[in-house]
Amino acid sequence: MAAAAQQIGGRPDEAAPAAIELRGISKAFGPVQANRNIDLKVPKGTIHGIIGENGAGKSTLMSILYGFYKPDRGQILVNGQALTISDSQTAIRAGIGMVFQHFKLVQNFTVLENIILGAEDGALLRPSLAKARGVLKQLAKDYQLNVDPDETIEELSVGHQQRVEILKALYRQADILILDEPTGVLTPAEADHLFRILEGLKAEGKTIILITHKLREIMEITDNVSVMRRGEMVASVRTAETSPEELAELMVGRKVLLEIDKAPANPGAPVLEVRDLKLVDDEGVERLRGISFDIRAGEILGIAGVSGNGQTQLLELLGGYPEKGSKVSGTIRMNGEVLDLTGTKSDAATRRRRGIGHVPEDRQVEGLIMDFAAWENVAFGYHDKPEYQRGLLMNNAAIKADAGKYMEDFDVRPRDPNLAARNFSGGNQQKIVVAREIERNPDLLLVGQPTRGVDIGAIEFIHKRIVELRDAGKAVLLVSVELDEILSLSDRIAVMFDGRIMGERLPDQTTTGELGLLMAGVTETGPVPDAAGTPPARQQGTDRPEGRG
Amino acid sequence: MDKMPKWADVILTPLISLFLAMAISALVILAIGESPWLALNTMVEGALGSSYGWGFTLYYTTNFVFTGLAVAVAYHASLFNIGGEGQAAMGGLGVALVLLYLPLPHWSIALPVAMIGAALFGAAWALIPAWLQAKRGSHIVITTIMFNFIAAATLNYVLVNILRPPGSMDPSSARFPEATHLPALTDMAAAIGIDWGRNTPVNISFFVAIAACLLVWLLIWRSRLGYEIRALGRSEPAAIYAGIKPVRIILVTMLISGGLAGMMAINNVMGEAERLLLNAVEGAGFIGIAVALMGRNHPVGVFLAALLFGFLYQGGGELALWTSIPRELIIVIQALVILFTGALDNMVRMPLERLFLSLRQRGDS
Predict the structure, then answer these.
(1) In chain B, N or C terminus with fewer CB closer than 10 Å?
(2) B224·A351 Cβ contact <8 A
(3) How many CB atoms lie within 10 A of CB A386?
(4) Cα distances (angstroms) measured from residue A125 to each of A114, A131, A166
(5) Domain with A47 in it: what CATH number?
(6) Inter-chain contact A394–B227, Cβ cutoff 8 Å?
(7) In sequence order, what are the residues at sequence separation of 6 or more whose Cβ sits closer than 8 angstroms to the Cβ of residue A479?
(8) What range does the domain containing A249 cover?
(9) How does pLDDT run across A186-235, given as a tens digit for each residue?
(10) Which among A321, A369, A383 has CB closest to B224?
(11) CA-to-CA distance for B115 and B207, rounded, in angstroms?
(12) Is B235 on the interface with A (CB under 8 A)?
């Protein structure tokens, strides 16, 4: 509510009009009120964080600012001028630039071609390209935004692709830069570099709006922060005057435990033994280059790494469904028995029967059938269990009974097993998946990105359940791109880079910095040469192309 | 939250579509100087006004139930089987071969055997496109429609060169043995003391069609196979994650779908013609697509939609018989119904959804 929002205190230079001012912005999609009476003031030359859980309305608000949606009510002022932003062209003309979470780049165009796309000066490209080349050189010098202008996008690392997005905005003379979850795909080193770039931009007088759900980033780089919850702006405060705990509480509306308290692990016999696992996909790209590790009973092994370094392939292979056409070698032992890697006994159903549960990385595409009711999803993957059969037909009553129990145990809301999965929030969808996999009491649980797009309250709950499973003497393989999650949950951490495990560390004997270097492919003995024979990664590996795909 | 109540989705939307189709049909009839009211009257009277009319309506309904179910089952696996026409034609060949070459003493034995023959031939005809889709990724819409032509040509060849009795100038098979003739509904009604009036082609297959509706419902919503079919149809990556084998499901689904389309032959070939004729299917395979679309791929919906199209077929025939409205116009009317209930479904649905949303919002505030 506007009334509840604390106004940001006046700084000397705030006599000037704010770069962005929103007054009473409301937007509804059908019955859903995505934004309700939002007030926001972003002073010129500051970095302003906007945090909130998934579905809090951050993206809607920014889409309104960029002209994608028309607000139902309210006023937008840019540099003190009231403005109706009807489309993105208007936003660009007003000096607003947007860096989306999912980059809007043409993969097989060069950097230069992408920069001028939509900003060509005339029918002929050549003069525009020449001009852009000059501007790009200047921008690179001013802000450490080095990118080779003639490289095609697909050859660039994710970090560099993001720079191209920033350059695109700057080329269009953006004074106000909006970044939506910019660090989701970056290594810690790349994220640090991005923050240095943002600070440079701020020093030049640019205004930056940073949308994120990572409290650490907010604390590190922003001047002010606004918190959204359920479509409302619940607070705007100076970053220096707040704490992560306070922000988390504002986001969720209640106190949250940011740290997981867990007892030391009490590992038993090895449950999963993986030796020299290799996978070449159907395009001939080596995705796994000889992975070996053990997970013992009562232990959580966390796999850290930037996404796209083989984690997905590892999970799919262990789960019994490597991508069609990939060639696999190596051995997987489960409780001492060798698992088939090919043939009819290597499928996901057989793996489940062997006691492997799997919370997949993408619950909406793999973990759930979004159109199925919650109760039908509770049987998903386990629908061939004898207790779910009744003669030729399925015993829907038994499935519904289980669904009711699981939803109770995992506090899924609303507790309506007949509701289709798509009508649950991200956190509750994930709870359904986690409940389904954990309640079968698997010997080994594979967990991919358990809290991606999940609200803080549910994160806390899911983490607790994973630790409980470990304490019950089960093995857990946790794959996550969230380093904080890996650090707080894992008993051991393995870092994956380019299809290899770069090293194993214990969470209390390592640092984000050390893991970050490993994630970028740097070990104590220096960068690892690429198997394909390309030159080794340059400084901190940030210039390396990440896995092709 | 659903956009609108279920009754509005499954009943109101098709009714409005139907009403629109009728309104435009009325305009077309007016335009050629005839009375729409008289036309409607003739159709209703001809199709539903007498037990004789009902007999024909239900006969057509039976055909459309089978082809409609065939499309509906495949749809749940996200497969668009538009090869019902060819599969039903091949089903007819199966029925003819079984009845002509196996010594079957009584219709009660002949019927299940003919059903198996019909289903096997229909399923076999769907298997090749299914295999091409599952293994080679050839799009099933393209392959099934091509297989319709191949079926028609094959049937032509078989009838002219193999099944045609010597000396006959007619490209059709010999008549099936007397013992295998299916009891017509008239006979069955008479057996329990009800006078159904004049003899009509509707026969015991009508009840087989109703049973098929029930079995399909059990298959899709109550069986493990149906669960796997629906899961694959909604999300292939999820199905693979759950250990469902897409190749197997695609093959099995198309076998069932083709089998259902083929089973239509017990009605038109065995029940009505009592011999195999060229072009026996008469477009029922294609009507099945409209029936499934309009029936929301649910057996109950399929049955109701099949009834509607049965009415349109029979009523249309009457219209051509008793009025000066040309036969071609009847096809226009049928096409309008398909257009509005199938292709233009969203035209009615979207404003309706918006209406219900605004009603709900008003209720909320």
Answers:
(1) C
(2) no
(3) 6
(4) 12, 10, 21
(5) 3.40.50.300
(6) yes
(7) A302, A303, A305, A311, A314, A315, A361, A446, A447, A448, A449
(8) 1-95+176-190+205-256
(9) 778 888 889 999 999 999 899 999 998 788 888 999 999 999 988 899 99
(10) A383
(11) 13
(12) yes
Give the whole-angstrom CA distance, residue A447 versus residue A295.
13
Residue A69 lies in a domain: yes
pLDDT of A4 higher than 70:
no
Asked if the Cβ–Cβ distance from A347 to B218 is below 8 Å, we say: no
Q: Which of B241, B248, B250, B365 to mutate to test the interface with A (most CBs of A within 10 A)?
A: B241
The closest alpha carbon to B302, from B25, B108, B64, belongs to: B64
Predicted local confidence at residue B364, as pLDDT: 54
With a pLDDT cut of 90, the percent of chain A lying above it is 53
Residues A284-320: b if buried by 16+ CB within 10 A, e if exposed: eebbbbebebbbbbbbbbbbbbbbbbbbbbbbbbbbb
Q: What pLDDT sits at residue B81?
A: 96
CA angle B147/B151/B152 to nearest 5° reads 120
- Phi, psi of A314, deg, nearest 5: -65, -45
Quick check: is A452 in a domain? Answer: no
Residues of chain B with pLDDT under 50: 1, 365
Phi, psi of A100 (to 5 degrees): -80, 160
Q: A494 touching B, CB under 8 A?
A: no
- Residue A231 forms contact with B (CB below 8 Å): no
Searching chain A, which residue's CA lies closest to the CA of residue B364? Answer: A31
- Find the closest chain B residue to A357 by CA distance: B242
- Per-residue pLDDT at B3: 65
Q: Is residue A252 part of a domain?
A: yes
Residue B364: list chain A partners with CB under 8 A. Answer: 31
Q: Does B181 touch chain A (CB under 8 A)?
A: no
Domain count, chain A: 1
CATH number belonging to domain B61-312: 1.10.3470
**B235 chain-A contacts, CB cut-off 8 A:** 365-366, 369-370
Is there a contact between B224 and A349 if contact means CB atoms under 8 Å apart? no
Cβ of residue A3 closer than 8 Å to a chain B Cβ: no
Measure A408 CA to nearest chain B CA, in Å: 21
| Confidence grade of residue A524 (pLDDT, cut at 50, 70, 90) | low
| C-alpha closest to that of B254 among B278, B276, B222, B232 | B232
Which of A321, A350, A361, A447 to probe by mutation at the B interface, max B CB count within 10 Å? A321
Q: Which residues of A, range 431-460, sit inside 8 Å of B by Cβ?
A: none
Q: Is residue A250 part of a domain?
A: yes
Helix (H) or strand (E) holding A77: strand A73-78
Helices assigned H by DSSP within A456-497: 456-471, 483-489
Q: What is the mean pLDDT of residues A88-98?
A: 91
Q: What is the pLDDT of residue A530?
A: 44
Q: Does B227 touch chain A (CB under 8 A)?
A: yes
Strand (E) or helix (H) holding A307: none
Residue A15: predicted pLDDT: 60
Q: Where in chain B is the domain with CATH 1.10.3470?
A: 61-312
| ipTM higher than threshold 0.90 | no
A53 touches chain B (CB under 8 A): no
What is the three-class DSSP state of A500?
Answer: strand
Three-class SS of residue A520?
coil
User: With an 8 Å Cβ cutoff, is B364 touching chain A?
Assistant: yes
Question: For position A322, what pLDDT does the model report?
Answer: 93
Q: Does A348 touch chain B (CB under 8 A)?
A: yes
Q: What is the pLDDT of residues A471-514, one digit of tens each?
A: 999 999 999 988 888 999 999 999 999 899 999 999 989 888 88
pLDDT grade for A544, boundaries at 50, 70 and 90: very low
